[in-house]
Specification:
With about 325 residues, the protein is α/β, with parallel strands linked by helices. It has helices spanning about 30-35, 50-70, 130-140, 195-205, 295-305, 320; strands spanning about 10-15, 25, 50, 75, 85-90, 95, 105-110, 115, 145, 160, 165, 180, 185-190, 210-215, 230, 235-240, 255-260, 285, 290, 310, 330-335. It has a single domain, classed as 5-stranded Propeller (L-arginine/glycine Amidinotransferase, Chain A). The protein contains six helices and 21 strands. The radius of gyration is 18 Å and the shape is globular.
């Protein structure tokens, strides 16, 4: 199982697609609870097993998505099925798990390396166990697979202040989904799920092959891929509500830009774990081809006018579970 990827758009040859099986909203996760407290939605998320209907419909959608990937020459790997409703205990915490639906959240593939990232979500710190078969096969084929130091996440490590999450800088904290690959550059979003120490640690790990560029003051809540997406060597998709020309990183200002503002709000089951902007969470499978949510008709038109071939694959519960096509995949190999 070869691992090699330096960008978000080279021809996709091999990928991990997540699972919704036994998805669960965790109990005992301080960080998860505090992030939920920042939601502006008037309802509340029910802690415990995700509804069977949501899991079954998501399973159907994932199988259809996998079929589409295979039709386009992409080899697909899956995490092992785990029961995330079970309770686990460490020296510091007792918590249930969450899910392995968003495969990109915790695994950062860069070059011939995969990094298990120091997620602030206590409930997800054991999630990489679901990838042990993939891990062993990748290591056999020369992949450098490593785990970052685990984030301790004591009460003082994540403090809600001025309607945003403030992380400690005592040690590295970040999700893989805070990072976008631009060949020799790694764009790192400093946010409620990624601190400065994480960027500095990542730079030491990747060495001189990649430059880690911190991007801050843009989107404070969570991950980068509902704010910015790399479509090919000189084109980016940009969230027009969050980003302005002068707030883009300098190395991206000469790129062609597709400014996305007319995002269709997909329905959700009882509580939206993701905002409407999960609609721009799309997957490039080569420099000319992207997979999007069929609900995003305006985005489809924009992409086609820019010369892209657009494929559609429905994810009925992208907002419910918090993951679009980019979130639920982890690139293993791209040309």
């Amino acid at each position: 199982m070869k691992v090699f990827t330096k960008n978000e758009y080279g021809r996709l040859k091999s990928v991990i697609v997540g699972r919704a099986d036994h998805a669960n909203w965790p109990k005992g996760d301080i960080f998860f609870d505090r992030m939920l407290s920042l939601s502006t939605y008037p309802g509340s998320l029910k802690i415990g097993p995700v509804a069977d209907k949501v899991i079954e419909e998501t399973r159907e959608d994932l199988f259809a998505f996998i079929d589409l990937l295979k039709e386009n020459g992409v080899s697909v790997h899956r995490p092992e099925i785990m029961d995330w409703r079970r309770t686990t205990a460490s020296l510091d915490h007792v918590t249930t798990g969450m899910h392995s639906y968003s495969a990109r959240d915790l695994l950062l593939s860069v070059g011939n390396m995969i990094i298990e990232c120091p997620t602030p979500f206590i409930s997800r710190q054991n999630e990489t166990r679901a990838y042990h078969v993939i891990k062993n096969e990748a290591i056999k084929d020369g992949c450098r697979w490593m785990a970052a130091p685990r984030a301790v996440m004591e009460t003082a490590e994540c403090v809600v202040k001025d309607s945003r999450m403030n992380l400690t800088e005592r040690y590295p904290i970040f999700d893989a989904a805070n990072v976008l690959k631009f060949n020799d550059k790694l764009l790192y979003l400093v946010s409620g799920t990624a601190n400065h120490a994480g960027a500095e640690w990542l730079q030491k790990i990747v060495g001189t092959e990649f430059e880690v560029i911190k991007w801050e003051g843009v989107y404070a809540f969570a991950h980068i891929d509902s704010t910015l997406t790399s479509l090919n060597a000189d084109t980016i998709l940009v969230n027009a509500e969050r980003v302005k020309e002068d707030t883009l990183p300098k190395f991206l200002r000469s790129h062609k830009k597709i400014w996305f503002s007319k995002c269709t709000e997909r329905k959700f089951h009882k509580f939206p774990y993701a905002s409407k902007w999960i609609g721009m969470n799309i997957l490039s499978i080569d420099p000319e081809t992207v997979i999007i949510d069929p609900a995003q008709t305006f985005l489809k038109k924009q992409l086609q006018e820019a010369g892209f071939r657009v494929l559609e694959s429905e994810l009925r519960h992208s907002r419910t579970l918090g993951g679009g096509h980019h979130c639920i995949t982890c690139d293993l190999e791209r040309e």
